[in-house]
Amino acid sequence: MVGSLVAGALWAMLPAYVPNNAAVLFGGGRPIDGGRTWGDRRVLGDGKTWRGTAAGTLAGTLVALALNFLSPTVAEAVGFALPTFPLHVAVALSFGAMLGDIGASFLKRRTGRERGAAFPGLDQLDFVVGALGLAALVAPRWFATTFPLTALAVVLVATPVLHVVTNGVAYVLGLKSEPW
Ligand code: CTP
Ligand code: MG
User: Fold this and answer.
1) Residues 106-164: tens digit of each pLDDT
2) In the chain, what is the straight-line distance between the N-terminal and C-terminal CA atoms, in Å?
3) How far apart are CA 80 and CA 1, in angstroms?
4) Residue 105: Cβ within 10 Å count
5) pTM of the shown model
6) How far, in Å, from the CA of 11 to the mean position of ligand 1?
7) Smallest-distance ligand from the CA of 104
8) Fewer Cβ neighbours under 10 Å: the N or C end of the chain?
9) Which protein residue has the closest C-alpha to ligand 1 atom 14?
10) Ligand 1 pocket by Cβ (under 6 Å)
11) Residue 1's pLDDT band (cuts 50, 70, 90)
C-alpha cells in the first residue's frame, strides 16, 4: 500500500524531473531578463533563457503524455494503478519545475551568487516546489489524491538525491559545466 503510494508519487514527479535536463540540452539564446539588472546584479542571468524554458516545458509535457500511454501496461505489470496526467496537470508540473528553477536563479542573484554558483538545498528542491506548487494550484483534487502526506515526504527526500545523481552524470558526460 505504502509502496504503491510512493511509486505512484515518484511516477507523478517524472514530468517535473525532465524539464531542467531538457533546458540544459536545448537552452541558450535570448535570456528571459533581456540582460536587465536589479541593483548591480542581473535579474536572472544568462542561464535562464526563453528557449530553455520552452524546451523544458515541452519535454516535461511530452513525458507526461508518454507516461499516460504507458501507464496501463506498467500498472498491469506492477499490480497497482498509476497516476495519469490530464493535459493541464502535465503542463503545470513541467512549467512549474521551470518556474521554480527561475525563482531560484532570482534568489541566487539577489544573494550575490554569480551564474552557475551553487546554492545547496535550493538547487535540489527549487523545481520540486515549483512543480508541486503549480500542480496543487491548477489541479487541487488531482494533487491531493496523487500526493498524500507520506508520498509528499518521500518525494521531498528522494528528489534531491536523484537530482544530485543525474546532475553528476550530466557533468561527467560534459553536458553541464558544474555538477549541481
Ligand atoms: N537553461 C536555459 N533556460 C532555463 C534553464 C536552464 O537555457 N530556463 C540552460 C542554460 O544554458 C543554463 C543551463 O541550462 O546555463 C544550466 O541550467 P542551470 O544550472 O539552471 O543554470 P546556470 O547557468 O547554472 O545559472 P544559475 O546560476 O542561474 O542557476
Ligand atoms: Mg546551475
Assistant:
1) 999 999 999 999 999 999 899 999 999 999 999 999 999 999 999 999 999 998 888 88
2) 34
3) 9
4) 23
5) 0.94
6) 25
7) 1
8) N
9) 24
10) 23-24, 27-28, 45, 47-49, 52-53, 98, 101-102, 105, 108, 115-117
11) low
The residue whose CA is least distant from atom 15 of ligand 1 is 47
Closest CA to 15 of 74, 68, 123, 93: 93
179 C-alpha to ligand 2 centroid (Å): 8
CA of 98 to the centre of ligand 1 (A): 10
Cβ distance 22 to 60 under 8 Å? yes
Q: Helix axis angle, 2-26 relative to 50-78, nearest 10°?
A: 150
Cell numbers for 79, please give them.
499490480
Q: What is the pLDDT of residues 29-50, one digit of tens each?
A: 999 999 999 999 999 999 999 9
Residue that has been written with the C-alpha cell 543525474 in this structure: 166
The protein residue whose alpha carbon is closest to atom 19 in ligand 1 is: 116
Half-sphere exposure of 154 (CA within 13 A, CB side): 18
Read off the pLDDT of residues 49-79 as tens digits, 9 standing for 90 and up. 999 999 999 999 999 999 999 999 999 999 9
